[in-house]
Amino acid sequence: MKKYFGILRKCSLFDQIEDQHLIAMLSCLGAQRAEFDKKYTIFAEGSPAKYFGILLSGSAQIIRHDYYGNRSIVSGVTPGELFGEAFACAGEQTLPVSVVANEPCEVLLIDSTHVLHTCSNGCEFHRRMIYNLMRDMARKNIMVYSKLEITGKRSTREKILAYLAHMEQQTGKAEFDIPFDRQELADYLEVDRSGLSVEISKLKREGVIDCHKNHFVLL
Q1: Can you give the pTM of this predicted structure?
Q2: In the chain, N or C terminus with fewer CB closer than 10 Å?
Q3: Distances (CA, A) of 104 to 35, 123, 172, 176
């Protein structure tokens, strides 16, 4: 597990926890490493919300489907990030979303009950870990609010511009790569792909943006 220390140090769950405590902590949590192929469903919508994960390598997406089967991308997951923790720690019986591997992935799976209840060993890092988890979930709530602000816009054009403005704010640059291809961007913005492509072409012709694949420039 030591070879993953570089990634685990990026994980918000382990913030301000010393390296010498990390191995003991993972053992206390009963953490288990698992590998998943591309397009494999790591967590399935409707399955028990008992575990959460830390992505060690690869990338994944959190998605949901509506009554009609339309897919919406809630967010992406990159190495070092937690996923599924809010549902597991809230005591939800089943997951309302799925987590799907975007490419071959390695994941550290953790039973949420080991996090929320202090172990019999009285580990000194446990209180800090719970604090880190609560802070991570608060940050995720802010991200969800930001997405609602974007998808709540009336038109596809407004949604595109709101999303690109959000990315500019996050990166601090007017030129950036987005983590989606066209279909994934349409699913994230909850719009039709053809309509998305039409609006992006219009924005390019009007000199508002320039783009190639997932690379965008705000002009």
Answers
A1: 0.83
A2: C
A3: 7, 34, 30, 25
